[in-house]
Design a protein that fits this description.
The chain has 216 residues and is α/β, with parallel strands linked by helices. It has 8 helices and 8 strands. The N and C termini lie far apart (43 Å).
Amino acid sequence: MIVDGDNEAEFDTLKNGSTDTAAVEAYYDDWSARYDKELAEWDYTAPDVAAAMLTKHLQPGSQVLDLGCGTGQFAEKLSNRLECRVEGVDISEASLKRAGTRGCYASLRRVDLQQTPLPFADNTFDGAASVGVMTYIADPAALLADLCRIIHPGGAFVFTHRDDLWQEREFDSMIAELTSRGLCEVLEITEPKPYIPKHEDFTDQIEVKFALLKVS
């Protein structure tokens, strides 16, 4: 259990899917030292699943953006599968410092993902991943559209989102709108999968979907 009397309120940020940037930043700064150990204990596999999905659409040497990289779990899983140049961005400075120790990143920097456009030129990347991040974004449609700008046509990106909040925040309609605008096409949207099944507050009623999109 990650909460005690001092950080129980911050835990609600994670469980309730807060879009308060300052609260999310504070929570992950505090959690960063325990993050990898605790997620391993809870059987968290989303970074590995996302890496496997995206690798099929990359080539050796691809330029990849790890959007909301945290402590670097996704980049490590991706690097185990394919040699890529990965750039990582996150709101949490403490998490970025830990990500840097993995040796998987060409660059790391603090970026507030609530603010679009992102600080990258058009067609910069061959692919991108956003694992466990969209829950905290107030305007995910704007962020997804901007990913379509900074990834070159034909490039792919994968993101995850909790199934309960996927329905509540109407992600099916959101993705349909992006495709109708000609920004991307859907390659795969998985059925709900276990999220962090060994955590007592995230039992099997809270699952996660993986969405793989290709930029048009």
